[in-house]
UniProtKB/TrEMBL annotation, chains A, B:
GO MF annotation terms: metal ion binding; peptidase activity
Family annotation (Pfam families): M20_dimer, Peptidase_M20
Keywords, alphabetical: Hydrolase, Metal-binding, Protease
GO biological process: proteolysis
Peptidase M20 dimerisation domain mapped to chain residues: 203-360
Naturally occurring in which organism (per UniProt): Acetobacter orientalis
Family annotation (NCBIfam families): PRK09104.1
Protein name: Cytosolic non-specific dipeptidase-like
Length: 465, 465
């Protein structure tokens, strides 16, 4: 076989690949909403059937939450063994009214950039990316009857909802899942046409806080001024989380374990990376709003932050209601870098709330996951061939970059399986991940699939003939 | 006729009165929700039919919003003429899950105080109170074939939703609506069994502010830190509205026109009024949370305040979503006293927001009504006989008190018709007005009806026997 036979198979099979992706996108596998549990299982079953049909031994594995998908295919004797990780679950779709087409009825549309776009919830995150790898395996098998190396796939269903069952699953199945390197397709490129491998990922701590004052909703005329207003209490607490002038998080000890960016990396990013206006312009912003003294790219790639992801209390509909509510709620997340300790930060947040809680109020907390930042050593031997393979496909040097998002599995794989990960993804900043009208460029899907063919070929130690 | 014949008619007719009240309570006349516009009209029609059957000339009158109900019945030649004002519209019912029975299926239940309670949205505010007056008129007519004085009723349908159509209606119908005194039944008693006439009412300014940052929802991993978070901006703005230490509103000029409480009134309220623990204990609170240096009663009766009545942004459902929303919204109200100017305070609030708005953000505002505080002169000649009539019914001295709520009609009647109002109501602090499980004590309905019989008789200049 030759590499080019497999790449041709990708090209000629694109329509069929796309059809399969659409089938998967039609399954509304929203993991955080209990009503969609059967859909999560349906997505897992779809993957098992698909991989089985391709010749993998594939099965779902039960967890206390949504099932895992595990599949194996052996390569030639002595070839390396890779573990591919992805997730089949997706984010909720609200606000539904902002979608131009139904989130689970995928369509191919002409995007404003001139690219064809696959539009659906999960198009980029992560079903589209998972399918680039699966379709690459399909093309390699088609070209040569077998894969150039041994492949295990682990596709989970709780990445978007805390993912507490992944680490126990890894720990319970170390023999089966151990490989030479993990491959993860859940990240982005440096920009359109600019391939990249991500080596720094932020960790995350999610917290929900509910402030309760009176034992029922009150009339704000009768009680306003005298009765404690939990929305006001919550706003005071949230306002105190960040210093308005410096943009820094105020929790004591928050910056413990946050490394300085080394000047060389900083200079490189300054050269190849987008400016603040370029990063933020497409979403209607112009200035890096976070920690002052850092660019937008630095703020998201290698500086920690605190975000309010949701807030709710009182009357939120149209019109006005003079209510003084009994409760108010906020969902808060912290993005972590370096060796910041998620549980120490969770404790510091709760102490921050308790210290600001007036008499007559109580605070309740719900933990929504916690994971450390992930660092991939840039010395790992699989990195150079993978970068070279990407460069060959995109005809652009492949960059080593950071990523603001959290992919806890990187740390969990290191911890449970003792393996490092190569994070190779084909997402773009304008993919509207987690937002209405999520999309994945057709060219990212197509060239992403071709990229994996080249990367697997290169990791197998073969010359690109 | 004698007063006692009419009072007996109230007693023997109580079951029938209650049945009529329940009929009115079954109509879900929520004025702030457009879907309930037909129900508002149905409530107006029900009142017209009921008053017509009692011998009033009664009709609905169109406005740009919900219709007004106007009815007239003549008393003896030379008798005084009163204008009764009430409202048939009610507040929204959310959160519905907290109701023990359906809000528009009124029931009579044994309350925790040992009193029988009429439970339904509008039971106290204001359908139950309106019906005390109507049923008093019925008993007086039944006892003597006619009323002891001339009565005009004006019952509106937009009190709970800004009420912008009332003043133009008053101004357009001054000849028809002009009387010697206005009677308003939309306030409370000093406590269970303690009758009162309210002479101070706070005004109100309602504002909604929407902060917009990015042009779409963003992934908080990809953009968190760099992209401006409108929830954070909103919380900073809200936190700055009040001084945490003094509880005072920080808007420049906010306290212009706020009178000091006179020491005599203060001493009287300190003697007859409830303590902070008594006022706030029933709702699960113990400390007056507002402007320091004032009791809970003073904070609500004669000090201005700022309350957040609703807040919303990002992901508010169960679970967690790492979204950085494009928008966040708050509904804010200010309660006004003395001569505070609603429009000056609205402008100061908007300036407060604009001054704190970071680059890349915009603020949009929606005005939700504005009215000055109302003061009834304690020198008006109708006040002493009304106080005496109440004392006769309740066998307790009737007090002159303040009220934290806003009843803009008092000022509007002064302005358009040049008349003062007697605010006589039978609500209690534990009526859960604007909250789930709103109720009106059966004894308040019954003795309230009897009270109006006595008050109308007294205002007609007749001796109670």
């Amino acid at each position: 076989m030759s590499l080019h036979t497999a790449l041709s198979a990708v090209d000629t099979g694109l329509d069929a690949s796309l059809k399969r992706l659409f089938d998967l996108l039609r399954i509304p596998s929203i993991s955080t909403q209990a009503a969609h549990a059967p859909d999560c299982r349906a997505a897992a079953n779809w993957l098992v059937d698909t991989l089985h049909d391709m010749g993998f031994t594939a099965s779902t594995r039960e967890t206390p939450g949504h099932p895992m998908v595990v599949a194996h295919a052996k390569g030639p004797h002595g070839s390396p063994h890779v573990l591919f990780y992805g997730h089949y679950d997706v984010q909720p779709v609200d606000p539904l009214t902002l979608w131009h087409s139904a989130p689970f009825e995928p369509v191919l549309v002409d995007g404003p950039t001139g690219e064809k776009e696959i539009t659906a919830r999960g198009a980029a995150d992560d079903k589209g990316q998972v399918m680039t790898f699966i379709e690459a395996c399909r093309a390699l098998k088609q070209a040569d009857g077998t894969l150039p190396l041994s492949v295990t796939l682990l596709i989970e269903g709780e990445e978007e909802s805390g993912g507490i069952n992944l680490l126990p699953f890894l720990e319970a199945n170390t023999e089966e899942l151990k490989a030479d390197v993990a491959l993860i397709c859940d990240t982005g490129m440096l920009g359109r046409g600019l391939p990249a491998i991500t080596t720094m990922l932020r960790g995350m701590v999610g917290e929900e806080v509910i402030i309760t004052a009176a034992n029922r909703d009150l009339h704000s005329g009768m009680y306003g001024n005298a009765a404690r207003n939990p929305i006001q209490v919550l706003c005071d607490i949230v306002a105190d989380l960040r210093d308005g002038a410096t943009g820094r998080v105020t929790l004591p000890g928050f910056y413990d374990g946050v490394p300085d960016i080394d000047p060389q990396t900083r200079a490189l990013w300054g050269k190849i990376g987008p400016s603040d206006a370029q990063s933020l312009g497409p979403v209607g912003l112009s200035l890096a709003a976070g920690e002052q003294g850092y660019t937008a790219l630095e703020q998201t790639w290698c500086r920690p932050s605190c975000e309010i992801n949701g807030i709710s209390g009182g009357y939120e509909e149209n019109g006005f209601k003079t209510v003084l509510p009994a409760k108010a709620m906020a969902k808060v997340s912290f993005r972590l870098v370096g060796t910041q300790d998620p549980e120490a930060i969770r404790a510091a947040f709760r102490a921050h709330v308790q210290a600001r809680l007036p008499a007559d109020c109580t605070a309740d907390f719900v933990a929504h996951g916690g994971s450390r930042a992930s660092l991939v050593p840039t010395t790992m031997p699989f990195l150079p061939p993978a970068l070279k393979a990407l460069e060959a496909e995109w005809q652009q040097p492949a960059a080593v970059i950071g990523c603001g998002g959290s992919i806890p599995v990187v740390t969990e794989i290191q911890q449970a399986l003792g393996m490092d990960s190569l994070l190779i993804g084909f997402g773009l900043d304008d993919d509207r991940v987690h937002s209405p009208n999520e999309k994945y460029d057709l060219s990212c899907f197509h060239k992403g699939t071709r990229s994996w063919v080249r990367v697997l070929y290169a990791l197998a130690g073969k010359n690109p003939d």
